[in-house]
Structure formats: C-alpha cells, structure tokens
Amino acid sequence: MKRTTVARGGKRGKTSGRGGKGQSARAGNKRRPEWRDIIKRIPKLRGRGKSSHKTIQTKPTIVNLAILVGAFKANESVTPVTLTEKGIISTWSGNIPDVKILGDGECAVALKVSGCYISESAQQKIEKAGGTVTAIVPKVIKSPKKAKKPKVKAKVVAKKA
Q1: Considering the domain boundaries, does residue 129 fall inside one?
Q2: Is the dihedral of CA 74, 80, 86, 90 positive or negative?
C-alpha cells in the first residue's frame, strides 16, 4: 500500500517536520532577526568610515610660546614653514600642518608671527614684547537659517442657507 502525503511538502506525514501550528509552520516562514530591524532604523552617516563621530577638520598642531622663545631670535618670522625647518613641528604625509600658538610661557623676544592660529593670551604677550601678529581668522561655517512661514489662521466663512 502506498503511503499518503498528509501535509504539504513531504515525506514525513502530518506536519512534515514543521512542528505544531503557528507562524513557523506556515509557508513563506522567513522571520527576520529583531536586531537587524533595529540596525536598519538607526540613521546612517554615509561615507565616514569606522569613526563616524570624528570631525572632518584636522586639528592644528599646538606650539607654546616658551618653545618659540627658545628657538627663534629677535625680529625673526614665525610661520608653519619656519617651524618645520627648525624641527619644532613635523609634516603630515608631506604636508605642513596648521599651527596654533598658545600662551604658555613668557615672551621676551619680539617675534613676527604669521600664517598661524593664535590664542588671545599669546597674541597679547607677543605684542607686549614688541612683536607683530598676523593671525588667521578661523573659518566658521554657519548653516543658512530657514525662513519661518507665517502662521495663517483659518477663516471661518458662514455659508448662506
């Protein structure tokens, strides 16, 4: 006598190896893992690599006034190029980095600083010693503000009967 096929899909009788009733017993049973749906809902920052929260802008190399006073003579110009030539800062993959001068230390030598970001205290100390400062203005990009739409109150018009 030939064995009869009871459930759809196969040679195992009654439930065909699908267990009891429910979602897992139905055709088209492909439940997604819950954590995958959570990952899909998270907003993505595309194209930023592993460290997506790291800033795009490169941070300037910090140089204190005490180092400049020891390395430069009076009325000598201080630029990122001269700082790399004297070995105070190093290049990043062949490029001269941005430099920020901080006011740690005393300045007794008149220096001509240009092409560097500079703190207020460092600028005051250099100018007090008789030096000159041509600072770079930091680039601040402001996002354009969206114009607010005026609120319009709905007018109630009475219909003529």
Answers
A1: yes
A2: positive
